[in-house]
Amino acid sequence: MSVLVFDIESIPDIVGLRVLRGLDAALSDAEVYAQVLAERTEAGKSDFLPHHLQRVLVISCVFRNSDGLRVHSFVDREVDGKSQEGKLIQGFFHTVEKHVPQLVSWNGGGFDLPVLHYRGLRHGVVAGKYWDLGEDDREFKWNNYISRYHLRHLDLMDLLAMYQPRAAAPLDAMAKLCGFPGKLGMDGSAVYPAYLEGKLDDIRRYCETDVMNTYLLYCRFQKMRAGFAEAEYDREVAFVRETLAGIDEPHWREYLDAWAMPTP
């Protein structure tokens, strides 16, 4: 089975906020967002908007199969000022439909997938295989993408914490503790400001390094559960290094420079 590790980056859905609140069209996006933040602060709520009001900006993937390893991002580059969110979400689910991979994430069950569900519903995205609970393929009755306790989608953070939110660990911390680079360039709180400054490729690069950290932790997990023998794990890690060294982009050079030798 192929493996598809994924991570998303999102920004506030200003269009959705306008629709739900019936806001004056004369208000700028910045004014809409400032108004909502002020209301949430006054109510003692976090400035992080709920899942259905997160607009998906980037979906980054590490795809591993017998042909090799590929890093790919679906990016909303907008066309004539209009979001292409629906197309990039459809592109992601088309990949799932085509390859029926092992999905892997870090907190994908808690954030990434619910966001993709709500936004996909809004845009009319079709994802038949992803939503199959055994009606079309009996194998999916016992192992599907939707059930929290099935492993066709493996949320590494959730599983390692034994499904206890208080035991969950951050991706950055676990990556660094295992000898991987961890986050580079920015964190999630910096994504919207970077988007407003037109730094879409910086956001993409940040998302790609995050998803690579997740893939490497997945490999480490495979070693822990005896899915990889020691030599297989070492070969896979070396293959990742070799693959990244062949990609001519600055964030991968930075990533490799920050990568300590694997811990025993």
Describe the protein's architecture and organization.
- The chain is an alpha/beta fold and 264 residues long.
- It has one domain: 2-Layer Sandwich (Nucleotidyltransferase, domain 5), CATH 3.30.420.
- Helix content is 47%, strand content 14%.
- It contains eleven helices and five strands.
- It has a five-stranded mixed beta sheet with strand order 3-2-1-4-5, with helices on both faces.
- Strand 2 (54-65) and strand 3 (68-75) form a beta hairpin.
- Helix 1 (14-21) crosses helix 2 (29-42), helix 7 packs across helix 9 and helix 9 runs antiparallel to helix 10.
- The longest helix has 25 residues, at 200-224.
- The chain is globular.
- The protein starts with a strand and ends in a 6-residue tail after the last helix.
- The model has no long low-confidence stretch (mean pLDDT 94).
Give the overall shape: globular
Query: What is the CATH-assigned architecture?
Result: 2-Layer Sandwich
The first-level CATH class name: Alpha Beta
Name the strands of the widest sheet in spatial order.
3-2-1-4-5
Q: What labels would you give this structure?
A:
264 residues; Nucleotidyltransferase, domain 5; 5-stranded mixed sheet; globular
Give me a quick take on this structure:
The protein has 264 residues and is α/β, with parallel strands linked by helices. The chain has helices at residues 14-21, 29-42, 85-99, 108-123, 139-142, 156-160, 171-177, 191-196, 200-224, 230-245, 250-258; strands spanning 3-12, 54-65, 68-75, 102-105, 153-155. It is built from 11 helices and 5 strands; from the N terminus they run E-H-H-E-E-H-E-H-H-E-H-H-H-H-H-H.
